[in-house]
Amino acid sequence: MSLLRIRCSLAEAPARCQWALVDAGRAPVRGEGRLAELPRRAARVQLVLPAEQVLLTRARLPAAAKRRPGSVLAFAVEEETLGEPESNWVSWLGRAGDSDALAVVDRQGLTRWLEAIKQTGYRNYEVHCETLMLPWTQGEWGLAWDGREGFLRSGEFDGAATDCGDRKSPPLSLRLALDAAAAREARPEAIAIHPGAADAAPDLDAWQRELGVRLRLAALWDWALAPPLAGLKLMEERQLWLSSPVLLARLRPAAWIAGGALAVHGFALVADWTLLAGEQRALRRQMETRFRAAFPDAVAVVDPALQMRRKLAEARQAAGRSDSGDFLPMIEKVALAARELPAAGLRVGAYENGRLTLEFAAVDAAALRRLVARLSEAGFSVDTSSAAPRPGRGTVVITVRAS
């Protein structure tokens, strides 16, 4: 079965790419050019992403989250990516010890390339990371090296791109990775060096003296020559075809059964909706009756629940008792909810008729979301907006109202 590998950079527009057509038992056919010029006879398509454009990390996830790749998982690595979660696509790779292995890529760049590949006529594709295609064995790391930089695979789901080095000096990131592994007692016994070309191999003796670990020279690294099943899929899509008349004939009874079930379900849904609507009208009439019994002087009853709350607030104020919309109860609850925000961040505070307006200097987005959630749990209605820009800083305004 033929395999078409496409190596691209997500930071570039999907115009040109490197590709390799791999057939079993034959040398790969390689090329570089526009996507419109890709070979058309491949049964499988792999999009290979460079190591520096894929972040391999770990997090602890609930079981249900593993089945929801994409922007949902991005919130699990929000602190590491330092960007908007919606801008990343996150895939679950597997279980690693007591945590989950995740791969993070740029969502916008990936979407552009996948849409461009679909326009060429291919509908079946897989997304791979070059890091996880590098050979790896237990107790030994793998390093692909082009003579100046490369990428490291340090585990089944672990790896990263390296910084620069030379023939005599290994990259600093490799030394730091070894120190971190030693701290958790996971230092490798050896590192296999896969040069990108015969003249790209480093001075193993010089590197060994600096790293303090045994090195060996392994086979040349070429993404096009990696085994067809190498690496882990970050994403895949399969196109299902139902054009066979025999298959359609077999599915017809199931379609009739599904249609009947949907009809019964629709009838039950309409009946349930009608019943609930009747109950809602009965409850509203009951609330209106009780409101008019309590306040016979009311001219009109538009929202009995809201009007009852307002009358109750007026009665509390007339009796000299505080209400949830008064300043002191509100400011006490708001101060408790904003306890983790820096005190110096509050610029302006104003209260008027049950509405408390707070203006903060630019705060962390995650802390702001937590503040809004706590205020909502406390029974307040909360609105946020950006204030008019001031010289040297941005501000955010939070308006809190008693529900």
Describe it for me?
There is one protein chain. The chain has 4 domains: 3-133, Nucleotidyltransferase, domain 5 (2-Layer Sandwich); 140-231; 284-321, no CATH class; 327-402, General secretion pathway protein M, EpsM (Gyrase A, domain 2, 2-Layer Sandwich). It has 10 helices and 18 strands. It has helices spanning 71-74, 78-81, 107-119, 130-133, 172-183, 204-211, 245-294, 304-318, 327-337, 365-377; strands spanning 3-7, 16-22, 29-34, 44-49, 55-59, 88-96, 99-106, 125-129, 140-145, 150-153, 159-161, 190-195, 214-217, 233-237, 346-352, 355-361, 380-386, 395-402. The strands form 4 sheets. It has a 6-stranded mixed sheet with strand order 3-2-1-4-8-14. Strand 17 and strand 18 (395-402) form a beta hairpin. The longest helix is centred in the last third of the chain and has 50 residues, at 245-294.
Give me some keywords for this one.
single chain; 403 residues; Nucleotidyltransferase, domain 5; 6-stranded mixed sheet; 10 helices; 33% helix; 27% strand
Can you give the helix content as a percent range?
25-40%
Strand content: 25-35%
At the first level of CATH, what is the class of the largest domain? Alpha Beta
**CATH architecture term of the largest domain:** 2-Layer Sandwich
- By secondary-structure content and strand pairing, the structural class works out as alpha+beta
Radius of gyration equals 31 Å
